[in-house]
Specification:
This protein is α+β, with helices and mostly antiparallel strands. The chain has 2 domains: 98 residues, Peroxidase, domain 1; 73 residues, Glutaredoxin (3-Layer(aba) Sandwich), CATH 3.40.30. It is built from 8 helices and 6 strands. Helix 7 links the parallel strand 3 and strand 4.
């Protein structure tokens, strides 16, 4: 079983000379402490143990970022940053670039600097990403995003509802869905996340609850499946 050790991380990128890094990110006098698993893995179940370590590390990083955001009263803004980061790193080419061990760290930091500028990320979010690059843990970014959402939802009493539809739904429809989910869950806030799913044919689905365990299916796909199940024509003989 992986042992745990305490690690203190400063949300401040390493100092570089102007010749090394032309546009350094703004530094903050912030720090956070988090618990990270050591590199000792169980040899009997290496894959399972590795997965548990990654989940633990992602949770620790996400919690640390949320703690800093909470202390700065920027929790909502940081949540918005994380959404931007999720979209950026959903591009396979972007993720491959930052996880490629043959690419120089300084080059990665320069590209990250450009991303930060164009996406208008907060300084502590930018520094956090630099930490992941320096620590070679940027490969955990998708898991960190998921863990941050869980922490954010818990801190703000927010219910996440994932709405899947064939086409983009209008804002008033999403507002109605949010109200309905709020009634069902009693949550103080409801956050809607939208996905496009052509397989639904028409209509929409809503997933909410712990890990999306609850489902409201208003899709035509479901209706067609129910009709097909009811119309069992296997034993019917056609009369000619």
């Amino acid at each position: 079983m992986a042992s745990l050790q305490q690690a203190s991380i400063s949300l401040q990128p390493k100092h570089l000379s102007s010749s090394q890094h032309p546009r350094s990110l703004p530094s903050l006098n912030l720090s956070f402490s988090a618990t990270f698993p050591s590199l000792k893995l169980s040899t009997t179940r290496p894959l399972h143990g590795g997965a548990k370590m990654s989940a633990s590390a992602a949770s620790s990083y996400a919690t640390a970022l949320a703690d800093v955001a909470k202390s700065n009263n920027t929790l909502d803004a940081t949540s918005s940053d994380v959404e931007k980061v999720e979209k950026i790193f959903s591009d396979p080419q972007v993720l491959e670039f930052f996880t490629n061990p043959t690419i120089d760290v300084l080059k990665k930091r320069q590209v990250l600097d450009e991303i930060v500028s164009s996406s208008e990320l907060q300084p502590h979010t930018a520094n956090f990403l630099n930490i992941l690059v320096d620590a070679k843990r940027i490969d955990l970014i998708k898991e960190i995003v998921k863990e941050f959402e869980l922490v954010y939802n818990e801190l703000t009493d927010t219910e996440l509802a994932v709405v899947s539809s064939v086409v983009k739904l209008e804002s008033q429809h999403l507002a109605q869905i949010a109200k309905q989910v709020q009634k069902l869950t009693g949550a103080k806030n409801v956050r809607i996340k939208t996905l496009i799913d052509p397989s639904l044919v028409a209509g929409f689905t809503i997933r909410y609850g712990s890990s999306g365990s609850k489902l409201i299916d208003m899709s035509v796909k479901k209706q067609l499946e129910e009709i097909a199940a009811q119309l069992d024509l296997g034993d019917i003989q056609l009369v000619v």
